TrEMBL record:
InterPro entries (UniProt xref): FAD-dep_OxRdtase, FAD/NAD-bd_sf
One cellular-component annotation, GO: cytoplasm
Domain of life: Bacteria
Keywords, comma-separated and alphabetical: Flavoprotein, Oxidoreductase
GO molecular function (one): oxidoreductase activity
Organism: Prauserella shujinwangii
Domain FAD dependent oxidoreductase per the UniProt entry, residue ranges: 19-366
The protein, known as: D-amino-acid dehydrogenase
Gene3D superfamilies: D-Amino Acid Oxidase, subunit A, domain 2 (3.30.9.10), FAD/NAD(P)-binding domain (3.50.50.60)
SUPFAM superfamilies: FAD-linked reductases, C-terminal domain, FAD/NAD(P)-binding domain
Length: 392
C-alpha cells in the first residue's frame, strides 16, 4: 500500500524547470541526486566535505535478511532496499557506469552451538521464502565454512545465505555522483544553509552564493542538524562513531570470500579483491564528532575479529577508518517533509545500515520531493513522528 507524502502539489505536471538542491553527498544524498537527475529535475548537490562521512568509512554489507532485528516494517524496508540494488546496478550500467562495486558473494552467520545454528536456519529459511533476493539458505559444518572463509575459527559452523552482497561505499558514491552529473546535475563544495523568503525555504546559501530551489533535500548524515539550525529546528540525529579496520593478506585471493556475521555480535568481516579483509565496527554512541582512532576502539575491533577468524592474526593492519553514523532516537531513519517546512525533505538517521538503506531511501526521498506516494513502511519514517522538531 502506498501513502502520499504530506507535501504541497507539484509545481507543474512536468519536472521541466523544477530545481531541487540536495545537501550532502553521502550514499543517500548521491542516490537522491541521481534519481532526481534521471527523472529530469534540475539538481544541485552541495557538500561540505567534512572528515568522518559514514559512507567513506563503512564496509558495505548488504544482507538485511541475516539481521537479528525482528520481522516487521523495518525489515521490510531493509529488504526492499537490498532488492533495489539489482535495479540500481542495471540503471547505472545503462548510463555507462558499470563500476558500482556491488557484488553478490554470499554471507555466513556463524556460531558454535547446534541449537543456535538450527534456530538461525529456520529463521533465515523463512525470510528467504518471503524475500527471493536472499537466495538459498544452507547449513554448513565447520569444515565447509572454513573452505569458504579460510581464516575462520575451526569450531564455527554457519548458515549460508547466497544472496548477501558487498559494496564499496566510496566507489558507489562516486559512481552515483558521476551518473547524476552525466544526467545534468551540478555539484557545489561548501557548507550550506537554507535561504528563507517570507518564511519559506527558497534555496540554500553555499560558497557565498544563493542557489535558488523549489525543494531542498537535507541528506547530510550525522551533520543533518547543522543546515537546519537557522530554521529554529532541532533534528534528532546524533553522531555515532564507528571504527573499522582493514587488513592485508598479500597473495591471497579474497575476492570470492563471503561476508561473515557472528550470530552473537554486531561485528562483522568481509573481503574485497586484492587480499583486503575488513573488520568492524565499533558503535560509540555519545562520541560527538571526535575523529580519532582510539586504543579501546582498535582493541575491540581486533579482539572481535580474531575471536571469529584467528587465521587473520598474521595479516597486515593497513588502516583504521573512522566514520560518524547518523543515529536517531528510535534507531530508524527519518524520511519525509520537515514539520513546519514542507518544502524541505529530511533524509537521515540510518545508523549502521546506511549502505544498505541509502540508495533505496534516496529514490523515496526523490518521490517525496516530487509529491509522489511512498510505501507504507517508508511513510512510517516521517520525521513528524518526533513532533514538530521546533527549538524551544
Amino acid at each position: 500500500m502506498a501513502h502520499r507524502a504530506r507535501f504541497p502539489q507539484r509545481i507543474s505536471g512536468t519536472l521541466a524547470g523544477m530545481r531541487i538542491i540536495v545537501i550532502g553527498s553521502g550514499i543517500a544524498g548521491a542516490a537522491t541526486a541521481y534519481e532526481l537527475a534521471r527523472r529530469g529535475a534540475d539538481v544541485v548537490v552541495a557538500d561540505a566535505g567534512l572528515p568522518g562521512a559514514a559512507t567513506a568509512a563503512g564496509a558495505g554489507i548488504v544482507s538485511p535478511w541475516t539481521s537479528r532485528a525482528p520481522d516487521g516494517a523495518a525489515l521490510t524496508f531493509a529488504a526492499r532496499a537490498a532488492a533495489y540494488y539489482r535495479t540500481l546496478v542495471q540503471r547505472l550500467a545503462e548510463d555507462g557506469h558499470g563500476d558500482s562495486s556491488f557484488e553478490v558473494v554470499g554471507g555466513m552467520v556463524v556460531a558454535a552451538g547446534e541449537p543456535e545454528l538450527a534456530d538461525l536456519h529456520r529463521r533465515l529459511t523463512a525470510r528467504a521464502a518471503a524475500w527471493p533476493e536472499a537466495g538459498s539458505v544452507t547449513r554448513l559444518d565447520p569444515a565447509r565454512a572454513r573452505a569458504l572463509f579460510p581464516p575462520l575459527a575451526p569450531g564455527l559452523g554457519a548458515v549460508h545465505v547466497t544472496g548477501s552482497a558487498r559494496v564499496d561505499g566510496r566507489r558507489l558514491r562516486e559512481t552515483l555522483l558521476r551518473a547524476a552529473v552525466g544526467r545534468g546535475a551540478r555539484t557545489v563544495q561548501g557548507r550550506a544553509e537554507p535561504h528563507v523568503t517570507a518564511g519559506t525555504v527558497t534555496g540554500v546559501r553555499v560558497a557565498g552564493d544563493v542557489e535558488p530551489a523549489d525543494r531542498v533535500v537535507v541528506a547530510a548524515g550525522a551533520w543533518s542538524a547543522e543546515p537546519l539550525a537557522p530554521l529554529g529546528v532541532t533534528v534528532p540525529v546524533a553522531p555515532q562513531r564507528g571504527q573499522i579496520s582493514h587488513f592485508g593478506l598479500p597473495g591471497t585471493d579474497t575476492a570470492p570470500w563471503p561476508v561473515v556475521l557472528p550470530a552473537a555480535s554486531s561485528h562483522y568481516l568481509l573481503a574485497f579483491p586484492g587480499g583486503r579483509v575488513v573488520a568492524g565496527a565499533t558503535r560509540e554512541t555519545g562520541s560527538g564528532f571526535d575523529h580519532r582512532v582510539t586504543v579501546a576502539g582498535q582493541r575491540e575491533v581486533l579482539a572481535e575479529a580474531l575471536e571469529v577468524a584467528p587465521g587473520l592474526a598474521d595479516a597486515t593492519l593497513l588502516e583504521t577508518r573512522v566514520g560518524f553514523r547518523p543515529a536517531s532516537p528510535d534507531g530508524e531513519p527519518l524520511l519525509g517533509p520537515l514539520p513546519g517546512h514542507p518544502e524541505v525533505v529530511l533524509l537521515s538517521g540510518f545508523g549502521p545500515a546506511g549502505l544498505t538503506l541509502g540508495p533505496y531511501a534516496g529514490v523515496l526521498a526523490a518521490r517525496v520531493a516530487l509529491g509522489e506516494p511512498v510505501p507504507a513502511e517508508a511513510a512510517a519514517l516521517d520525521p513528524g513522528r518526533f513532533g514538530e522538531l521546533s527549538a524551544p
